[in-house]
Amino acid sequence: MAHGPTHGIPQAPLPLPGVSKIIAIGSGKGGVGKTTVSVNLAIALARAGQKVGLIDADIYGPNIPLMMGSSAQPRVGPQNQIIPNFTHGVKTISIGYISPGDKPMVMRGPMLHQIIRQFLQQVEWGELDYLLVDLPPGTGDVVISLVQTVPLTGAVVVSTPSDVALQDGRKALEMFSSVNVEVLGMVENMSHFTCPHCHHEIDIFAKGGAERTALQFNVPFLGSVELASSIREGGDRGMPIALAGPESPLAAEFYEIARKLQENAEEAAERGGDVIEIS
Ligand SMILES: Nc1ncnc2c1ncn2[C@@H]1O[C@H](COP(=O)(O)OP(=O)(O)OP(=O)(O)O)[C@@H](O)[C@H]1O
């Protein structure tokens, strides 16, 4: 991979030509369904007529190839630009396309930064309404690389309603605030479980916790997604549930969240334009 002309001088974040809104999706805690939410939101936005790109910024544990059902190695164009894969109506890039298999990526921070930069700047995204960035779990490095490279429209924080996940979710909210990235909304994943036999709602992780946290932090709440085996199966088969369309009850939750996100992102984009540099 080529290195950018940094020469040790921090570069100001620059918009990506043709890309209208860039949204980071984070969680703080791992395993709460951030990638599941990212792929389903990307598909729902694409089905709503938006041009959508998706970056798998989880360099150490890329799951987007599996969840989007795509493993093709991206082509390289004449100007050395990377042509993203196009799956389920979404342009995607992942380190998993370039270095497939189960071998972990071992690299130092500067290399990670370069990869994030390249995924933003060297991929031929073309015209996009939305570029979603699925962040790795935790807070930190990748977000700094992102905000140093491009102006973000905002962020989405995914959490389960359990106290443990919310504790980390709050850290993610604070982290975005500390780098001046507006949180466009919180999503509560694995909100509850509906028993397939008696159809009763079972409250596994204390439903409503993410909504209360959103209220407390004064950020919008985008909606809840229930815990359902078909959501997990869709991800494992590379056929996310959103492909079932907005009429399918489980997929409908993602379409509703996508609609609210679109509203909030458009408002933020209209308000925005100011690039705030972090020191
Ligand atoms: N609403 C849901 N219902 C059922 N299973 C779910 C749901 N959301 C996520 N899962 C499953 O939970 C597991 C973890 O989800 P996912 O990989 O999306 O989480 P993550 O937060 O991105 O994890 P990571 O820490 O690897 O970044 C996956 O097997 C996924 O299919």
Describe the 3D structure.
With 279 residues, this protein is α/β, with parallel strands linked by helices. The protein has one domain: Rossmann fold (3-Layer(aba) Sandwich). The chain is built from nine helices and eleven strands. It has helices spanning 34-47, 64-68, 95-98, 109-121, 141-149, 163-178, 209-216, 229-236, 249-271; strands at 19-26, 52-56, 75-76, 82-83, 85-87, 90-94, 128-134, 154-159, 183-194, 201-202, 221-227. The strands form two sheets. Strands 1, 2, 5, 6, 7, 8, 9, 10 and 11 form a nine-stranded mixed beta sheet that branches. The protein has a two-stranded antiparallel sheet with strand order 3-4. The site of adenosine-5'-triphosphate has 20 residues, from helix 1, strand 9, strand 11 and helix 8. ATP binds at residues 28-35. GO terms for molecular function: ATP binding.
Q: Which stretches of 5+ consecutive residues score pLDDT under 50?
A: 1-6, 275-279
In the CATH hierarchy, the architecture is 3-Layer(aba) Sandwich
Please count the helical segments: 9
Structural category is alpha/beta
* Total strands: 11
Order of helices and strands: EHEHEEEEHHEHEHEEHEHH
At the fold tier of CATH, the topology name is Rossmann fold
How is the secondary structure organized here?
Layout: E1 19-26, H1 34-47, E2 52-56, H2 64-68, E3 75-76, E4 82-83, E5 85-87, E6 90-94, H3 95-98, H4 109-121, E7 128-134, H5 141-149, E8 154-159, H6 163-178, E9 183-194, E10 201-202, H7 209-216, E11 221-227, H8 229-236, H9 249-271
Parallel strand pairs: 1-7, 1-8, 2-6, 2-7, 8-9, 9-11
Antiparallel strand pairs: 3-4, 5-6, 9-10
The protein binds adenosine-5'-triphosphate (ATP).
The site of adenosine-5'-triphosphate has 20 residues, from helix 1, strand 9, strand 11 and helix 8.
